[in-house]
Design brief:
With about 325 residues, the protein is mainly beta. It has 2 domains: about 5-80, GMP Synthetase, Chain A, domain 3; about 80-325, Thrombin, subunit H, CATH 2.40.10. Helix content is about 10%, strand content about 45%. Residues about 325-335 have low confidence and may be disordered. Belongs to the peptidase S1 family. One of its GO terms (biological process) is proteolysis. Keywords: Disulfide bond, Hydrolase, Protease, Serine protease.
């Protein structure tokens, strides 16, 4: 796989930004990105504006011009969905990962204690549903460095428009057998859904925790995503997976469901893996580079392709900093009770 250099990206980015909103209004278009153009399944070595459609059909070559401003386009069929897990309360489905961690770390399953009424067409059958996602890492608030939050996505932390500060969260999630009250670990403290960010911060309770990610180790800080670099994520459903960053320019239209609707996330990180990179229940996991620095917050995917918020806007909008093992004593949280 070849990667586009910064010089090529600098030329294409303004053209892509100029046309992406108009492209996103066209039927079936769910995203606009920058990547290598493929023809008949083979890479051409040429940079292109990539247009994601939910189903590639004969109409798409007509509705998307072959080139824009001298830059070729490439229409790609993808089914990109938010990767939270949702099952009915009455489901007989067994937990995907029935993990219980007495010491909390990033990469573990969590979910709201409350259930959610969901109706068609969002689901096949109306009913009460419960949600599962991933606790990605721990952060501290910039206004009070002793206040520790667990980081996850908006669509795991808030789910719909009925959310409220103080909503209870459990580990394991109710999908995985967690019990409200007995398994409470945190309450919703803040959230953001705008620009390039779908994120939420959960105020941690008395359970002990470590500034680590399961199977990865201690978090060392934050860094900017770099095209061509290898990243790892540890999610509730797929566990530890590896991929390579192939873009930091993805713009996606994602359906957040009843009450929230379709929202556009810009400047998303796109990761490619030789295997499945993520699945339902992995939303909220952090992308970590070779130096254990967090570069992104995983939100959505499609098989071997994953998408994540860049971490810096997440931290900025939530007004937090990553908690690391190297945090000075004066900024460390008080010991858990």
């Amino acid at each position: 796989m070849s990667y586009l250099d910064e010089a090529a990206l600098a030329v294409i980015r303004p053209i892509k930004r100029m046309v992406e909103d108009e492209f996103l209004t066209r039927p079936g278009v769910i995203g606009v990105d920058i990547g290598e153009k493929y023809t008949a399944g083979r890479p051409t070595g040429k940079a292109a504006i990539v247009v994601y459609v939910c189903a590639k059909g004969p109409q798409h070559p007509q509705q998307i011009p072959a080139e824009v401003g001298g830059v070729p386009t490439d229409v790609v069929a993808e089914s990109i969905v938010l990767h939270r897990a949702r099952i009915t309360r009455a489901s007989d489905e067994q937990p995907v990962v029935a993990e219980r961690h007495p010491i909390l770390r990033g990469g573990i399953g969590i979910g709201p204690a409350r259930s959610f009424r969901v109706v068609p067409p969002e689901v096949e059958k109306a009913g009460e549903y419960v949600i599962a996602g991933t606790l990605g890492a721990f952060v501290i608030t910039r206004t009070d460095p002793r206040k520790v939050l667990g980081l996850t996505t908006f669509h795991v932390g808030c789910v719909d428009d009925s959310w409220a500060v103080g909503d209870e969260f459990v580990h394991p999630s109710r999908v995985d057998g967690g019990v409200p009250g007995a398994d409470e670990i945190a309450v919703l403290d803040r959230a953001a859904l705008a620009g390039s960010v779908s994120a939420a911060g959960l105020k941690m309770g008395a359970r002990p925790f470590r500034a680590e990610v399961v199977d990865v180790g201690a978090i060392t800080g934050a860094a900017q995503a770099t095209i061509g670099s290898t990243v790892r994520k540890r999610g509730r459903t797929t566990g530890l997976t590896y991929g390579v960053i192939v873009s930091t320019d993805a713009t996606l239209r994602l359906d957040f469901g009843d009450g929230i609707g379709v929202r556009t996330l810009r400047d998303q990180i796109r990761v490619h893996s030789s295997e499945r990179f993520g699945d339902h229940g992995d939303s909220g996991a952090v992308l970590v580079d070779a130096d254990n620095r967090v570069v992104g917050l995983y939100v959505a995917g499609s098989g071997s392709t994953g998408f994540a918020n860049p971490i810096e806007p997440v931290l900025r909008q939530l007004d937090v900093e990553l908690l690391t093992r190297g945090v000075p004593e004066s900024r460390r949280p008080e010991p858990a009770a």
